[in-house]
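Quick note —
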Amino acid sequence: MSNSNQLVLQISDKLLQDTKDSIKRRIIQKLAAARKLIDFDKEVSAGIYVYAVEELGKLEVLKNVQDRKLPYWTVFRDHNTKFDKAKEYLKNEKHLECFLLNEGDFDSNAFDSDDFVTDVAADTEARLGIFYVDLKYNSTNRVVTGIKGIPTVDAKLLSDCIDSLEKIVNNWN
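Predicted structure written out below.
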């Protein structure tokens, strides 16, 4: 890992709080945009929603800043870290509804399952696939077998997710 990947930034208490406030505003903006897109393109709406979830993870990252030292590339800018933090927060706060974007996504015991992190990570990655076309291929012979699909989205469940995440973010501290 290069030195730039190990970059740790000093951040004042005021800028730390200003950053949290800015992130919260941007999440609310993303959720408003996602809400408006549901009837036009619910898959794109779900993709924007997933980005809002990632930003919740960024808030959780900032909550854990110690001694005003922020690991920039390896934590603050790392997508996997932010998703993991968001999933952990939503799991601990019992907000299962934030991951129900279509029927059958998770059962009522989803948060207690060892497969939860893997399932959510895979589903999240698939949902972000709405923004690009990717290929399915056989890794052994490297032959393309098709075009990757994206998960279906239930408009009502997505709307409920957006409403729930908005409440969570407005009450986050």
